[in-house]
Design brief:
It is built from 14 helices and 14 strands. It is of the alpha/beta class and 396 residues long. The protein has two domains: 195 residues, 3-Layer(aba) Sandwich (Rossmann fold), CATH 3.40.50.1440; 146 residues, Tubulin/FtsZ, C-terminal domain (60s Ribosomal Protein L30, Chain: A). Helix 3 crosses helix 4. It is globular and about 60 Å long.
């Protein structure tokens, strides 16, 4: 008798979270483990995601308590929780940390993918987003941050406003799929939860993300080029963000004929950019049909201060500017402030311990100019400069 495997629950919170999970459902029909949470009844009624939690309009603290039991039931059989939403609005900025605390209170690995507001949305929204992000990082095992200003190039654009938000949504989808794939991968070539925490769990760090997809005989060449050209893999004035990264996660997903030579070439190119002292963690999931595309995800972080997980989990409970949950007369499930306490008193339940990372002292990259030798830009991958095509094994 086969034991049923626990599912990974993906939770879309607020209007942006609902929009992202709707797109995810359209592009991945039949995908399981999706849940949307919102206090906007119109948004929920038009969503195609079957599982929904409606937060009553009004006080967010009371609203959280009203869905506490249902959310607890939703995570009861999950092996991990991935939270998704756009920070800056009161609903998502309050509920994302609250639901993260609820998931962690039952010992679940909890990750978040969040979008930061565009600068044109105003300073007040940005400040609320930064406050919520800081609280998320004290709770989650890792937080992938999509900075919408950086995604759009950081300069005024003639693109339609709707197109900018669609690009943000699709980037959130790509990061969600990458994290889900990393958590689901088994076998000898995989990225562990400790690896994810080492990159996404550094307080105050910036997330850098690249994604590329391609099919055909030159698939690795094209997917890698697209991933490396992603706007979230650049640092203003410093070039490619991989040069500042101490650890890089490389995840490849594709058909069964994905070869070791393709994986090796991708690793070699990232190591050339990031330097030999950068630790590259590789995950491979090659179980798709022959016609499926090769998808390549690059995740890294820069800056921030490395702390142990134990210290992170012992941080103070969050306190948002929005009205906080109040205790019910019969408190079957405590409020987020109360649920945070067992994390300090039950070390046996902790999913992570002190990070056992190699300590590398990396050199500084003071020069942002390209490396030009003999008229050639050596920062461009060799196989791109030489026009070398990477072929895949013949299919039988």
């Amino acid at each position: 008798m086969n034991k049923k495997q626990p599912s990974r629950l993906i939770v879309g919170i607020g209007n942006a979270g609902v929009a992202v999970l709707d797109l995810l459902s359209v592009e991945n029909p039949g995908m399981k483990g999706l849940l949307v949470v919102n206090n906007d009844s119109e948004s929920l009624s038009s969503s195609i995601v079957a599982d929904r939690l409606t937060v009553p309009e009004g006080d967010l603290g009371d609203g959280f308590l009203s869905i506490d039991d249902e959310f607890g039931n939703a995570v009861a059989s999950a092996s991990a929780v991935l939270l998704c939403g756009g920070l800056g609005g009161e609903t998502s900025s309050f509920l994302l940390p609250a639901l993260a605390i609820r998931a962690k209170s039952v010992g679940l690995p909890t990750l978040a993918c969040v979008g930061m507001p565009f600068s044109f949305e105003g300073k007040q929204k940005r400040d609320l987003a930064l406050e919520a992000l800081a609280k998320l990082r004290t709770v989650c095992d890792g937080v992938a941050v999509i900075d919408n200003d950086q995604l759009s190039g950081g300069t005024p654009s003639t693109s339609a406003v709707g197109e900018a938000f669609q690009l943000s949504d699709r980037t959130l989808i790509a990061s969600l799929l990458a994290l889900q794939g990393m958590l689901a991968t088994s076998g000898p070539v995989k990225i562990t939860r400790s690896d994810l925490h080492a990159v996404l769990g550094v307080p105050g760090s910036s997330t850098h993300f690249g994604f590329g997809s391609s099919q055909g005989s030159n698939r690795l060449h094209e997917a890698l080029e697209r991933a490396l050209k992603g706007p979230l893999l650049s640092l203003p004035g410093k070039g490619n963000a991989l040069r500042e990264a101490k650890t890089v996660l490389l995840f490849l997903r594709g058909p069964k004929d994905l070869s070791f030579s393709e994986v090796q070439l991708a690793v070699a190119e990232i190591e050339r950019i990031a330097g030999e002292r950068c630790l590259i963690k590789v995950g491979v999931k090659a179980d798709g049909p022959p016609e499926s595309p090769l998808e390549l995800f690059i995740t890294a972080s820069s800056g921030g201060t490395v702390q142990t997980v134990a210290k992170t989990n012992e941080s103070k409970p969050f306190s948002l500017t929005a009205t906080e949950p109040r205790e019910r007369p019969e408190q079957e499930h405590p409020s987020p402030e109360k649920t945070a306490k067992p994390l300090k008193k039950s070390p046996s339940k902790q999913m992570q311990g002190t990070l056992d990372l190699d300590s590398y002292q990396r050199g500084r990259f003071d020069k942002s100019e390209p490396t030009i030798v003999g008229g050639e830009d050596l920062d461009v991958p060799t196989f791109l400069r030489k026009g070398i095509k990477i072929t895949t094994p013949a299919r039988h």
